[in-house]
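Title: Request for sanity check on Gamma-glutamyl-gamma-aminobutyrate hydrolase family protein prediction

Description:
We are preparing a figure and want to confirm that the structure record we downloaded matches what your pipeline produces today. Could someone re-run it with the sequence below and paste the raw structure tokens into this thread? We only need the token string, no images.
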Amino acid sequence: MRPPTPTRPLTPHRPLIAIPARFAATTSALRYAAEVNARALIEAVWRAGGEPVSIHPAEPAAADVADRLARFDGVLLPGGGDLAPHRYGAADTHDSVYDVDDLQDVFDLEVARRTLDLGLPLLAICRGLQVVNVALGGSLEQDMGGADREHRHVVHPVAIQRGTLLEQAIGAEKTEASCYHHQRVDRIGVGLKPTARAADGTVEGLELPGHPGWFTAVQWHPEDTAGQDPAQQALFDALVHAAHHRQ
């Protein structure tokens, strides 16, 4: 009798995590403008056990965002340039507003709304937090001020509210956050609650209490230090865990 043919062990399914690509006018390695996502971000999702998938920003009228998202297990809204101020009702634009792209704005806002509607696990980072806030009717402070107020290129402590999904993920009531932003939440969107603040009162985290899907948003960039700081990697772990258990 022929011995049974050895079988390869099954590889556990990695939850698919959709990450809207960011438009870049130039890159150092490509001949043309590109759609990109930060390598540190992708690697953090991969370390967590997820399969990071960049999705192309397209006009929602031409492509049903809900249908596109339905095949994914979770969504990550990454950092990027500023939202156009008119998206949150501002009449003027501050000189510091940068890298505004109308298509990126329209797509990201629709992704935020549809992801929440579908109950897909969602982690929103920096611009992503601001997108969710604006999608739910909130507004932004267009510029936080001079070097003593802005949060660019700084690592600072953030106080986290107990009992939140953010606190459950990180496992602490304080963390060191790597920040790169010159804007912050002004009016908080409908239903959103702050979950973390910097010493100057800047909202550093938002959640939707009572929302059926796993969702948390942070104003900082956990991917910057996730490779060395388990507390920051834990945010990506929590996203992928929630995505896995939703399958």
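Thanks, this matches our download. The two ends are 41 Å apart (CA to CA).
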